[in-house]
Write a sequence for this structure.
């Protein structure tokens, strides 16, 4: 690093579990871009953004729990992030900070690799920033979406924005779905032994997508495999989303295969089984 090195990074809490630094730093190296991607464990988001906006920054990834709050402190929000109501990417351009959302396209691409979405019944567990991105992406692609959340009021607010059904988590037993998506952090490292729902509530033959990416195979995906479901790992959304972030920050095509290889190698070294 030197005086010209641009700073990018992940802003959230927790951030330890993330693998994004592995992908972005490998991509910067491969394309000879003088930048470094760091992890910032941040509680006071406004102070963080105020401080960093005057430095030599390229942009940030935003994660749990700041995706909605971040919108308040930026200069501009792009159309998609505005419609979704959550920002997972900040781009520094001409001394302005622009909020974008790559979660939506990253997740939709991962889903479309396993299933069509038009007219499918999809259930989203959770009603945070990622759930908003998924609800928007699925609705735009013609799926019938139901949001189930621990706090049903939050599910209601997303449902009103995207014309979805909603309810508390216990409603799952009454719903016939083709696609089930977990957007809660339940099952995430270091609490990898738990699933957001019991095995008997996973419909046989459905497609199950867990956006949690550490561990690689979550308890929910393990149950889904045992029930004969097609599964989608959270790492697919992360790779797709990070590639889009890289392109927004640098204006260059992301070396996706390299990013995939680096993150998969890291996960294997950390003891994750494929
Ligand atoms: N694969 C990827 O690329 C990718 C991208 C984005 C996020 N993620 C992962 O997705 C997860 C959620 O991120 P987010 O930014 O959407 O978080 P968020 O905005 O904080 O939302 C979390 C949601 O999960 C629910 N929840 C939290 N703990 C719960 C529990 N113990 N039981 C039941 N529900 C619970 C919350 O319910 P309440 O409303 O009741 O609080 C909330 O609706 C994180 O693990 C994150 O790492 C992965």
């Amino acid at each position: 690093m030197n005086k010209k090195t641009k700073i990018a990074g992940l802003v959230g809490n927790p951030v330890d579990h993330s693998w994004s630094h592995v992908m972005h730093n490998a991509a910067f190296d491969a394309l000879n871009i003088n930048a470094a991607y760091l992890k910032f464990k941040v509680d006071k988001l406004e102070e963080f953004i105020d401080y960093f906006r005057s430095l030599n920054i390229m942009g940030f990834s935003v994660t749990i729990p700041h995706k909605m709050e971040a919108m308040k402190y930026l200069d501009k929000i792009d159309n998609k992030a505005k419609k979704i109501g959550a920002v997972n990417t900040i781009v520094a351009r001409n001394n302005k900070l622009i909020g974008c959302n790559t979660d939506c396209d990253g997740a939709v691409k991962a889903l479309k690799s396993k299933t069509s979405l038009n007219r499918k019944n999809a259930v989203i567990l959770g009603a945070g920033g990622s759930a908003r991105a998924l609800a928007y992406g699925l609705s735009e692609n013609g799926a019938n979406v139901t949001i189930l959340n621990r706090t049903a009021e939050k599910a209601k607010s997303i449902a009103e924005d995207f014309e979805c059904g909603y309810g508390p988590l216990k409603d799952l037993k009454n719903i016939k779905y083709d696609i089930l998506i977990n957007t809660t952090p339940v099952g995430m490292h270091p609490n990898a032994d738990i699933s957001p729902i019991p095995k008997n509530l996973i419909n046989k033959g459905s497609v199950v997508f867990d956006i949690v990416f550490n561990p690689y195979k979550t308890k929910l995906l393990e149950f889904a495999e045992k029930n004969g479901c097609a599964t989608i790992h959270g790492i697919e959304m992360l790779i797709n989303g990070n590639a889009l972030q890289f392109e927004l920050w640098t204006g260059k095509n992301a070396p996706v295969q390299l990013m995939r290889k680096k993150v998969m190698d890291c996960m294997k070294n950390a003891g994750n089984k494929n």
Observations:
- The longest strand covers residues 6-12.
- The longest helix spans residues 234-250.
- The pocket of NAP is lined by residues 63-65, 67, 103, 106, 126-131, 149-151, 154, 183-186, 188, 211-213, 234, 237-238, 241 (CB under 6 Å).
